[in-house]
Amino acid sequence: MNSSKINKIHLYNTLTRKKEIFTPCEPGVVGLYSCGPTVYNYPHIGNYRAYIFADILKRTLRYGGYQVKHIMNLTDVDDKTIRESQKEGRTLKEFTEFYTEEFLKDIKSLNILEPDKFTKATDYINEMVEIIEKLLKKGHAYKSRDGSIYFDIHTDAEYGKLSGFSIASLKRNADKRLEIDEYDKENAQDFALWKAWDEKDGNVYWDADFGKGLPRTELALVRGRPGWHIECSAMSMANLGEQIDIHTGGVDNIFPHHENEMAQSEGATGKKFVKYWLHNEWVLVDHKKMAKSEKNFYILKDLLDKNIDPVVYRFWLLMAHYRTRINFVWEALLGAEIALKRLYGLYSELGAEVGKVSKAYQHKFKEFIGDDLDTPRALTVLWDVLKDETVSNADKKATVLDFDKVFGLGFVNSEKNKREEKIPEEISKLVVERDQARQNKDFQKSDELRKQINSLGYEVKDTPLGAEGF
Ligand code: AMP
Ligand code: ZN
């Protein structure tokens, strides 16, 4: 039996808007689908929050005793991929394969475990066509004048149940359809399942035969390409079945992407598509969402250029709950770097022997991580066990390695665990500042500084000659 089994894992379900006890469709086995990147550029570090969150979720489920099948898609055909590949004069395949490789390197450096399978949208065109045929047959979809096929949201009485969007106020307006995959909350309308070819698409098209779905009077063959939402429905159903346990993405995926995925999947199968919808909050910059369009983004290379290990970024994210927004500033990342090096340092002093996992600490860890993946509180347990003088070094080591199955901070990687002999400059500065505050009898400030030093993994010992960080 798995000794780290967690009795109850609570997860916040966007669909029901509450934390629920997780129970998969099939006992012990979890089908997990994560919306992956559009491979047209380097993802920014905000995007990586979505994949690190999915990784922590998967690791927690595995740690908790479940067998997890994880699928992540790679969107390799849409407006952006077509446009950018044309600009570079490369075929869509060449272009998207390059960015797929870059993505794989990035996730490795972030200690993200690869999904069991990456699915490329272009490998699932037939499955998409089949779903669209079913929707046509059932009257949920229609063909427009230019040949594109749309989902009629008015045929879905429950449309809006995920995002809370109400279609009651919307008037049917067939002429105001959008031509792109992206649109905002204000623009809820029938969405494209299949887009008829136009010259902007160049040589990117498939000749799809919707013969089984369309009345015989209509032309069944439509040269075109899929809409974005149908890609995820097809890939998740093909690999995980018509009903999946957990679907993840960032909060900006809730509407329209996930709302539409759900509408078309449930419209086609008549079954509940996803049991638990989980979404991570944003990484912000200057309190605005980090986004390519805002030009306020960083990529992993920006970290590497500053000699910051991507795992530091992972650690920084884990210090916040995945459902809270976090504001990215370099100082915060440098603080995380100091704290992580401190952890590696403490770990490296434990010696070679691996003892037994501390049950008491493991109990606390499971309680926190099982409470909707509360990584900030779970990290406090890691610090506590490392500092507990009643636990042997060998047992500490076993406990840290056990927790790291979920954190993925790479404690086993000995290269990283070299002791930082010197007290980092930032800590020394804080210690001096605190000393000054104490001398000025500003105990509130000195207390705040002590807390700040502690949060970076150091403690101050007051000696007759002043304070000393260690
Ligand atoms: P995209 O490539 O835009 O589809 O985004 C890929 C993933 O990153 C999606 O799950 C988004 O919801 C997520 N995402 C995008 N921007 C951010 C951000 N600033 N912070 C956190 N997640 C984000
Ligand atoms: Zn998706």
UniProtKB/TrEMBL annotation:
Gene3D superfamilies hit by this protein: Anticodon-binding domain of a subclass of class I aminoacyl-tRNA synthetases, HUPs
Task: State the reactions this protein catalyses.
Answer: tRNA(Cys) + L-cysteine + ATP = L-cysteinyl-tRNA(Cys) + AMP + diphosphate
**Which EC numbers does the record give?**
6.1.1.16
Task: Offer one example of a GO biological process linked to this entry.
Answer: cysteinyl-tRNA aminoacylation
Q: Where is the tRNA synthetases class I catalytic domain?
A: 22-333
Enumerate the cofactors the protein uses.
Zn(2+)
Where, by residue number, does Zn(2+) bind? 35, 232, 257, 261
Q: In the record's cofactor note, how is the cofactor described as bound?
A: Binds 1 zinc ion per subunit.
Alphabetically sorted, this entry's keywords are: Aminoacyl-tRNA synthetase, ATP-binding, Cytoplasm, Ligase, Metal-binding, Nucleotide-binding, Protein biosynthesis, Zinc
Q: Where does ATP bind?
A: 292
Per the Swiss-Prot or TrEMBL annotation, the motif 'KMSKS' region is positioned at 289-293
Motif 'HIGH' region residues?
A: 37-47
From the Swiss-Prot or TrEMBL record, state where the protein is found: Cytoplasm
A GO MF label: cysteine-tRNA ligase activity
Could you tell me which SUPFAM superfamilies the record lists for this protein?
A: Anticodon-binding domain of a subclass of class I aminoacyl-tRNA synthetases, Nucleotidylyl transferase
Q: Ranges for the Cysteinyl-tRNA ligase anticodon binding domain?
A: 422-463
GO CC, one annotated term:
cytosol
Subunit info here reads: Monomer.
| HAMAP family attached to this UniProt entry | Cys_tRNA_synth
Q: According to its UniProt record, which protein family does this protein belong to? A: Belongs to the class-I aminoacyl-tRNA synthetase family.
PANTHER family on file: CYSTEINE--TRNA LIGASE, CYTOPLASMIC, CYSTEINYL-TRNA SYNTHETASE
Name of the featured protein? Cysteine--tRNA ligase
Its source organism is Candidatus Nomurabacteria bacterium RIFCSPLOWO2_02_FULL_40_67
Whichever gene encodes this chain, its name is cysS
